[in-house]
Design brief:
Distance between the termini: 27 Å
Radius of gyration: 19 Å
Helix content: 25-40%
CATH superfamily of the largest domain: NAD(P)-binding Rossmann-like Domain
Number of domains: 2
Structural class: alpha/beta
CATH class of the largest domain: Alpha Beta
Length: about 260
């Protein structure tokens, strides 16, 4: 039986992950972490199919015998938790978005010490979308313009979403482009003609949209659209639990959901 701790346990994703753990064979909840000011600290999480677990704070509260930590929190929080995992020899599954380049480098360094799955989106469907997007972009080439539109709920803090950036990176790699040089995140006023090789990434924030991503490839006389719509957070949670089951026992290193799903 794999024992998993969940960071951000009382948040939207944390709650969904705990529910997914409770309905999945071969894994059980071993810890529930929250930030130091959370009002539910010290209370117990008790669901059918899982033992009662007290909500604690900080990476130092990860209980002995934990096999894997699942973390969908903040960039700073995830790195702090991942450092503790590296020191304790605990595997990690990280779905936090909004990490800067230096933070991604730090995550990579910690992953050299403990097996880590890092993905901006752990949905099986989204990771298949990444593969389809790369295949389509490579086949169509430079004659087709690339636009990505993403929509999320009004409470999401980072923009564009990590999934939109992952989609853009997949397309850029397939086309041999440098995303940092070709990404366009906003347009306003007299912008002139579209420049060669642009990869547009546009953001919508409204209501309670769980997540929607569309890749538009527009060429002479036609366009192709690939869209993924998340109807609930359950698919992300199931993907995270699937990653947790897969990562335990692997060699130290940084893995992606493509590795978990056998797409690489």
């Amino acid at each position: 039986m794999i024992r998993a701790a969940v960071a951000g346990a009382c948040g939207r994703m944390g709650s969904a992950i705990i529910q997914a753990i409770s309905s999945t064979d071969g894994i059980e909840l071993a810890g529930a972490l929250e930030h130091p000011e959370h009002p539910l600290l010290g209370q117990e999480i008790s669901l059918p199919g899982i033992p009662s677990v007290t909500i604690t704070s900080g990476p130092g509260s990860i209980s002995a015998g934990t096999d894997v930590l699942i973390d969908f929190t903040t960039p700073a929080g995830s790195l702090s938790n991942l450092e503790a995992c590296a020191e304790l020899g605990i595997c990690a599954v990280v779905g936090t978005t909004g990490l800067g380049e230096e933070q991604k480098e730090a995550l990579h360094m910690f992953a050299l010490r403990t097996p880590t799955v890092f993905s901006p989106n752990m949905s099986v469907g989204v990771n298949l979308l990444f593969r389809l997007a790369a295949t389509a972009a490579a086949a169509l080439g430079d004659d087709y313009d690339v636009e990505i539109v993403e929509a999320h709920h009004r409470m999401k803090k980072d923009a564009p979403s990590g999934t939109a950036l992952g989609l853009a990176e997949a397309v850029a790699k397939a086309l041999g482009r440098d995303l940092a040089d070709k990404a366009v995140y906003a347009r306003h006023g007299m912008i002139g003609e579209r420049s060669p090789g642009e990869i547009g990434i546009q953001t919508i924030r409204a209501g309670d949209i769980v997540g929607e991503h569309t890749l538009l490839l527009a060429g002479p006389g036609e366009r192709i659209e690939l869209t993924h719509r998340a109807h609930s957070r359950d698919n992300f949670a199931r993907g995270a639990v699937r990653a947790a089951l897969w990562i335990v026992g692997r060699e130290p290193g940084l893995y992606t959901m493509a590795d978990v799903l056998g797409l690489e």
